[in-house]
TrEMBL record, chain A:
Residues 10-231 form the Luciferase-like domain. Pfam families: Bac_luciferase. The lineage of its organism: Bacteria, Bacillati, Actinomycetota, Actinomycetes, Micrococcales. Gene3D superfamilies: Luciferase-like domain (3.20.20.30). It comes from the Bacteria. InterPro entries: F420-G6PD/mer, Luciferase-like_dom, Luciferase-like_sf. Keywords: Oxidoreductase. This is LLM class flavin-dependent oxidoreductase. It comes from Occultella glacieicola.
TrEMBL record, chain B:
PROSITE patterns: FAD_PCMH (PS51387). Belongs to the oxygen-dependent FAD-linked oxidoreductase family. This is LLM class flavin-dependent oxidoreductase. InterPro entries: BBE (IPR012951), FAD-bd_PCMH (IPR016166), FAD-bd_PCMH-like_sf (IPR036318), FAD-bd_PCMH_sub1 (IPR016167), FAD-bd_PCMH_sub2 (IPR016169), FAD-linked_Oxidoreductase (IPR050416), Luciferase-like_dom (IPR011251), Luciferase-like_sf (IPR036661). CDD domains: Tetrahydromethanopterin_reductase (cd01097). Gene3D superfamilies: 3.30.465.10, 3.40.462.20, Luciferase-like domain, Uridine Diphospho-n-acetylenolpyruvylglucosamine Reductase, domain 2. Keywords: FAD, Flavoprotein, Oxidoreductase. Residues 347-518 form the FAD-binding PCMH-type domain. Its cofactor is FAD.
Length: 310, 760
């Protein structure tokens, strides 16, 4: 079941360079102006050339009205989960439900350690991430007045008050490639967020989807509970070519529709920091992909588990 | 004791998570009311409150003028390294509007419930002390030098420094006890208690502790602002402290200023109406009353220069006499922004003072001040000088980055006025919507000021000439401070000299250009295996010379690796027609085995994009430059030797010629018009590079392009300027800069008195 039937959304991946803060903010505004759904920023708090992603997200949220915002993805080791949960809920409340939480386990351990953060093995970082998700979801859950206790190996909260509850169900998306993380996604997350640039072979996407789906089912969830998002890069040019995402908008639309129908992706996030490409994505590519996918889904409703639309 | 601080008034906004819109509205109201500061308490364990940093960032994004501060940040729960970058980021995003209130943490049960280690009161003060050091170390650092900050609670072990905030962010500490007060006296910029938690006499006692600690640390107690959170209400009659009419408030607040030295009152109003009375009735009346009293008592007022800043001042500069207009934006070694302005793209520097004038008049003032100081002077537009030394050690830099306007003067004649601090990437962006471009170079980060006074060998050079060929007028501040407009009719000799030797004459504060109509362009990167370098160079040179003018290509060769020489040809075709682009590039495909190729039709700004990041140059670049007519077999063989010698890690030949050669050599101070190629090598060390260059390349050179040359030997002046040009330049120099103030870039010595001017 490669197409999970999610509605299609499109966004941008903006480099949060601090040399020209206004340019970064303008690209987020350009995302909104292009009719796109989502603006995202990478988070590398050890990187002195970048604006702090959390600050930037909050600042940009105040200067936009419609677009959703997310980190792509938050560096959990340098942003302890209890604080993160309250900050995320606050941003969601301030923005009227426009915040989503892309999360990562951390990768550059020397840089993280240099900042006074922990050093973790890949395995430890996944356990920590899983504990972090429990804390975050626990603090957002105000359906009970019981204080939150999570006694993890890496993160502990011991009787913290819950809340504030976010304005909407904040989605937790994880960036991941390896089976253990993929299984965690199937068990606990709302989305899988890989980058096309790191994918060597499209068949790997099929395998990864299957790993997520299996874990989801084993956890009593459905594969459709996990949105598949993809960071993409490419160039628009007049000539059609063989390469992925290098050609006219129509060709992009066909290729992205294929990625939706064959590999289950429903959110595409474009890097490149180029306002013109954003406009083409929002005004030309996105409607065309939606049209192509709608036509296919309409024609072939054989899979009863795929709920089209939201 | 009144410390004479400028009085400020702020709002204490309660970050109620049940009413986010109401919170933000009150913050906006504070701005509308003209208050100086909006502040937010921080209790991250308390879900009834919005998370403070998120809220402050949001408020910054929803306001334009008012400064923002946490009141005060819980430092027990917030890792300081990430906070340092977050604070700098918020300061940069908000245009310098962040101030930081910090606290050591108080409600330890709640803090520990969040998973944060519990500290004793003493430990928490030590941890805060470390956090303060760490914040300042990150802000003062730069990305190229890893920070080692030891600490028992907070340490950095090789983290990058930076970014520098937009202004020096003051650290104001919330405190009640002597230990914290001593910390404030020794290290912080402010004391920020709440009146409700103080008993009578506590302010005076706290001030005494702070002042003693400050004095012991060699600081002036006036460096430390005293802030006070207050509550209260308004009513027709006075009913106790801060409850009554504004006049009663003023009467009651006045002694806090005059006796306890409070400089900032932050009011926790119950709503907009009270805040309005505070802002519009209390604040002005209190300011007036304080001013009158200070006058009567002759209290010294205004900011004092902190010890930390004074300690880093350099000898020979009389900092106290910097003209007022420049003082506010000047950067000294002790300022937060110093790391961002000390270095240039290719050089490390350590100036004693960076002046950042905002208009031509301020440029003249800066120049007059600099001339009165016995230290080196450097002029900087965007700091990409190779020959130009736009930083120094212990001297003054006049930094023109604030003069960065780009303005279309006349659409019909495509006349554009551009200030020196603009960068070429920005110029390309600004011209593009009109369908225009101005050939400049190959790099968007380069400044207008340095390039447009030297030449400008760019991607569109063969079709559109040098940048200076488009120059129609300049406004220039001369050594004596005069602002002169030079063009073909007015000061024609100056106008002639600026176009090739401008750095010797003065500080150009504006350029007027006639720009070209340029659509999208073809841009190719072709990577070759240049096995036989000499043949490759010769063939490329011949192809390039024979090509139509719309094709301009540059060739780059790195250090050979394992015997392999890889050559990259970057070519621009001034055409948006794919067939034309392909047909221009086709012949190049035969140059050798192609390893990689990419051809695109792009908007001109895309090929001179402005790079990101600050300038972290270190040391001194070693480069050589030569202009040559043709890539003859002899030259090609010599260049091959240079390349194979390995002394150059970056060897580049740019095609010039075409429209560049249409201009007669005597028309501008850039005189080597017949050259078809500009040859440049960057070496790791000067001696080794010179040894090979002098013997191999120099014999084939017919002049050089000064912007790419760093050899300090005097012969190079004669290579840059042929005899007639040099003579005329020296004569002009003797008139406009007889004392040789401007000498940081290819210095032309003023002519000796008695030498007659060359006509022109
Ligand atoms: C990466 C890179 C790429 C480059 N590419 C090109 C290129 O494609 N084509 C090309 O022609 N050159 C190129 N250059 C050379 C460049 O043009 C010169 O180095 C130029 O001086 C840089 O200008 P700036 O304003 O950034 O430099 P700065 O370092 O700010 O200034 C350099 C010098 O210029 C003088 N100067 C600066 N502003 C003024 C002013 N307003 N009035 C009078 N004198 C002034 C001063 O003497 C100063 O020392 C390049 C340099 C670099 C580092």
């Amino acid at each position: 079941m490669p197409d999970y039937g999610h509605d299609l959304t499109f966004g941008t991946f903006i480099t949060p360079t601090n040399a020209a803060p206004a340019t970064v903010v303008d690209l987020a505004k350009a995302t909104e102006a292009a009719g796109l759904d989502l603006a995202t920023f990478q988070d590398h708090p050890y990187q002195a050339g970048f604006l702090d992603t959390w600050t930037l997200l909050s600042y940009v949220a105040a200067q936009t009205e419609r677009v959703s915002l997310s980190a792509n993805v938050i560096n959990l080791p340098l942003r302890p989960p209890a604080m993160l949960a309250r900050a995320a809920a606050s941003l969601d409340l301030l923005s009227g439900g426009r915040f989503e939480l892309g999360l990562g386990a951390g990768a550059f351990w020397d840089a993280i350690g240099a900042m006074g953060g922990p050093r973790r093995t890949p395995g430890e970082s996944i356990t920590a991430l899983s504990e972090g998700i429990d804390i975050i979801r626990g603090l957002w859950d105000t359906s009970t007045r019981e204080r939150l206790v999570v006694d993890g190996e890496f993160y502990r909260v011991d009787g913290a008050k819950r809340g504030p509850a976010p304005a909407h169900d904040i989605q937790i998306w994880l960036g991941a490639y390896k089976p253990r993380m993929l299984r965690l996604i199937g068990r606990k997350a709302d989305g899988w967020l890989p980058s096309l640039g790191y994918v060597k072979d499209l068949n790997d996407l099929t395998t990864s989807n299957a790993t997520i789906d299996e874990a989801a089912l084993a956890a009593g969830r459905t594969p459709g509970d996990v949105r598949r998002l993809l960071n993409i890069g490419g160039t628009f040019s007049a000539q059609r070519g063989d390469a992925l995402l290098s050609g006219p908008p129509e060709q992009w639309a066909e290729q992205l529709a294929d990625l939706t129908l064959e590999y289950g992706f429903s959110t595409y996030i474009l890097s490149g920091d180029d306002a013109r490409s954003m406009m083409i994505l929002g005004q030309e590519v996105a409607p065309a992909v939606r049209e192509l996918v709608r036509a296919e889904r309409g024609a072939d409703r054989t899979d009863p588990t795929s709920a089209v639309g939201r | 004791m009144d410390y004479g601080h400028h009085l400020e008034f702020g709002a204490f906004v309660n970050p109620d998570s049940a009413d986010p819109a109401g919170v933000v509205d009150l913050a906006r109201r504070a701005e509308e009311l003209g208050l100086d500061l909006v502040t937010v308490q921080d209790h991250p364990y308390q879900p009834a409150l919005l998370e403070t940093w998120t809220l402050l960032s949001w408020i910054a994004g929803s306001t334009d003028r008012i400064r923002i501060a946490p009141n005060v940040l819980n430092m027990a729960i917030r890792p300081p390294a990430v906070l340092a970058r977050a604070a700098a980021s918020l300061d940069l995003l908000s245009g310098g509007r962040l101030e930081l209130g910090l606290g050591a943490g108080h409600f330890w049960d709640a803090i520990a419930a969040m998973g944060t280690p519990r500290l004793s009161p003493g430990e928490s003060v030590d941890a805060l002390t470390e956090a303060i050091e760490l914040l300042r170390a990150v802000w003062a650092g730069d990305a190229s030098s890893p920070l080692e900050v030891p600490g028992a609670f907070h340490a950095l072990d090789g983290a990058q420094g930076g970014p520098a905030p937009a202004h020096t962010i003051p650290l104001w500490i919330g405190a009640l006890k002597p230990r914290m007060q001593r910390l404030i006296g020794a290290k912080a910029d402010g004391w920020w208690p709440s009146l409700g938690r103080l008993a009578p006499g506590d302010l005076a006692a706290g001030n005494a502790v702070i002042d003693t600690a400050a004095t012991e640390a060699g600081r002036d107690p006036r460096e430390i602002r005293r802030l006070l959170n207050i509550t209260g209400s308004f009513g027709p009659t006075a009913q106790g402290e801060l409850s009554g009419p504004p006049s009663a408030w003023v009467e009651q607040l006045l002694p806090y200023v005059l006796d306890d030295g409070v400089g900032t009152f932050v009011y926790a109003a119950s709503g907009g109406a009270d805040l309005e009375r505070f802002a519009t009735e209390v604040a002005p009346a209190l300011r007036e009353a304080v001013a009158a009293e200070r006058h009567a008592r002759s209290t010294p007022v205004g900011a004092v220069v902190p010890l930390a800043v004074r300690a880093k001042r350099r000898e020979g500069i009389d900092y106290d006499t910097v003209p007022a207009a420049l003082a506010a934006t000047a950067v000294e070694p002790g300022h937060a922004g110093f790391a961002g302005v000390r270095n240039t793209y290719l050089r490390g520097g350590s100036p004693g003072l960076v002046l950042r004038p905002g208009d031509a008049d301020e440029v003249a003032q800066a120049l007059a001040f600099a001339r009165s100081q016995p230290v080196p002077l450097a002029v900087r537009s965007a700091g990409h000088g190779i020959s130009g030394r736009s930083t120094n050690d212990g001297g003054i830099v006049i930094d023109l980055s604030r003069l960065n306007g780009i303005e279309v003067l006349d659409v019909d004649t495509r006349r554009v006025r551009i200030e020196p601090g603009a960068r070429w990437g920005e110029v390309a962006q600004a011209l593009h919507p009109h369908g225009w471009a101005l050939s400049s170079g190959d790099f968007g980060g380069v400044g207008v000021g340095g390039l447009a006074t030297a030449g400008g060998i760019g991607w569109l050079g063969r079709k559109h000439g040098l940048t200076i060929d488009h120059l129609r007028a300049v406004e220039i501040v001369l050594a004596d401070g005069a602002l002169v407009r030079a063009d073909a009719e007015h000061h024609p000799d100056l106008f002639w000299a600026v176009r090739g030797a401008g750095a010797n004459l003065g500080i150009v504060t504006a350029f007027e250009f006639e720009v070209d109509e340029v659509g999208d362009v073809g841009f190719a990167q072709l990577v070759f295996d240049a096995g036989n370098v000499a043949t490759f160079l010769e063939n490329w040179g011949a192809l390039q010379e024979a090509a139509p003018r719309d094709l301009t290509s540059f060739l780059i060769i790195g250090r050979p690796r394992g015997g392999q020489v890889v050559a990259t040809v970057m070519a621009t075709v001034d055409s948006d027609d794919p067939d034309t682009v392909i047909s221009r590039l086709q012949p190049f495909a035969t140059l050798g085995p192609l390893l990689q190729q990419a051809v695109q039709i792009l908007p001109y700004p895309a090929i001179v994009a402005t790079p990101d990041g600050g300038q972290h140059g270190q040391g001194e670049p070693a480069t050589r430059s030569a202009l040559v007519e043709h890539l003859t077999p002899e030259f090609a063989a010599a260049a091959a030797k240079l390349i194979h010698s390995g002394v150059s890690y970056f060897f580049q030949i740019r095609s010039v010629g075409g429209a560049v050669a249409d201009v007669p050599p005597e028309e501008t101070a850039y005189a080597h018009r017949s050259a078809n190629f500009s040859v440049t090598a960057f070496g790791a060390g000067r001696t080794r590079l010179d040894a090979v260059w002098d013997t191999q390349i120099q014999p084939h050179a017919n002049g050089l392009y000064l912007s790419f040359e760093t050899d300090p030997r005097p012969e190079r002046i004669a290579d840059a300027f042929p005899p007639a040009t040099l003579a005329r330049l020296r004569e002009i120099k003797a008139r406009v800069d007889p004392e040789n103030v401007f000498r940081d870039n290819f210095n032309v010595a003023p002519a000796e008195p008695g030498i007659t001017a060359v006509a022109g």
